[in-house]
Specification:
This protein is α/β, with parallel strands linked by helices. It has 2 domains: 136 residues, no CATH class; 193 residues, Glycerol-3-phosphate (1)-acyltransferase. The protein is built from 14 helices and 8 strands. Strands 1, 2, 3, 4, 5, 6, 7 and 8 form an 8-stranded mixed sheet that branches. Helix 13 packs across helix 14. About 9% of the residues have low confidence.
């Protein structure tokens, strides 16, 4: 996401710089920095140049960080070396091309001015931003949500290793404290999850626009066939996010936990991972608890936390609690009892 933003800003600042200088005549006398800034276009040009420098850093630093992070450990050094060779090659070729495009001896009156080059760079930067957004392996929306949560809510996530070792079929069971819970759960995994939400919530007018950005399965008690679709989704390897309470808490603590997560885990042979969220209950998007006081837009006295606990269900990962024998009903009852136990244990810790 920062790379896409950097490419967009690079294009905008380059376009503005090219537009601001397009009709300017060269100075006839030398001017100092103070004289340039005092001129009608000097401050605008200085802002554009500073914006280009900042946007360039926003573009290149995440890109260089992503190369070794996404490369496999067995060939990471070769990928980094090849990336450096390509960068050097493009810089050398780019320098030669720019020099040729400005060569009046070679091109005569068709030689490009510096302003025209900035306009071309601005347009191509926007094209590059679109190409990166369409081809990068991560989700731009999840990256944006991660930036928002970490910058404004000071998000802390603990226990991600439990998700990574839980196996190919996982069900994320979260406590429900606000309407931001789903957005928070989307950034816990590298793979886009599927959300199981209440049918009544999904029909609200202000919720419908957000449903276009995620794979959502509304649960209707009158249509139990939807449970089968969730089972098939989990069997296919897509992570499922479900709120076992079925509604946002009205007491400030964990409410009754239904056995839907256990039922789906039983039918799909999946692992249930309880995740406890704290802090978001102090935001305006929380159903206000009587006597809790006015919620803050951005909590200031503590950090919002998401803690993923050990997996429960059929044995897939080390350290998880294996269910007792007794068949499917025993598995559902086991998950239904262990999820609130895990939440309460995390709350005490």
């Amino acid at each position: 996401m920062p790379t896409v933003v950097g490419a967009v800003l690079l294009g905008l600042f380059a376009l503005d710089l090219g537009w601001a200088t397009y009709s300017l005549a060269p100075a006839t006398i030398p001017m100092g920095a103070a004289g340039v800034l005092a001129s009608p276009h000097g401050l605008r040009i200085a802002i554009d140049l500073a914006g280009l420098a900042i946007s360039g850093g926003l573009f290149i630093v995440p890109s260089f960080a992503a190369v070794p992070a996404w490369a496999g450990a067995d060939h990471r050094a070769r990928v980094v070396g090849a990336c450096n060779v390509l960068n050097a090659g493009f810089m050398a070729v780019g320098t030669v091309v720019v020099g040729l495009l400005q060569n009046e001896t070679l091109l005569g009156r068709y030689a490009l001015s510096t302003s025209t080059l900035f306009l071309i760079i601005g347009i191509t930067s926007q094209v590059v931003a679109i190409a990166i957004a369409r081809t990068m392996p991560t989700s731009a929306l999840r990256d944006l949500l991660s930036i928002v949560f970490r910058a404004f809510y000071r998000l802390e996530v603990k226990g991600l290793e439990n998700i990574e070792k839980a196996g190919p079929r996982i069900i994320i069971a979260l406590n429900h404290v606000s309407f931001l819970d789903a957005a928070l759960s989307a950034i816990l995994m590298n793979k886009a999850p599927v959300f199981a939400i209440d049918y009544g919530i999904a029909q609200r007018w202000w919720v419908k626009p957000f449903l276009r950005f995620a794979h959502v399965v509304p649960l209707d008690p009158l249509k139990p066939i939807l449970i089968r679709s969730l089972v098939n989704i989990v069997r296919a390897g897509d992570p499922l996010v479900i709120f076992p309470e079925g509604r946002i808490t009205v007491t400030g603590s964990l409410m009754k936990v239904y056995d839907g997560a256990g039922l789906i885990a039983d039918k799909s042979d999946a692992t249930v991972i309880p995740v406890r969220i704290t802090g978001l209950e102090r935001t305006p998007l929380h159903s206000a608890v009587e006597g809790a006081g006015a919620p803050a837009l951005v909590p200031q006295d503590h950090r919002d936390r998401a803690r993923a606990g050990q997996a429960h269900g059929r044995p897939h990962a080390e350290g998880q609690v294996s269910p007792p024998g007794g068949g499917r009903r025993a598995l559902r009852d086991h998950v239904r009892s262990r999820v609130p136990y895990h939440f309460n244990r995390q709350h005490r810790s």
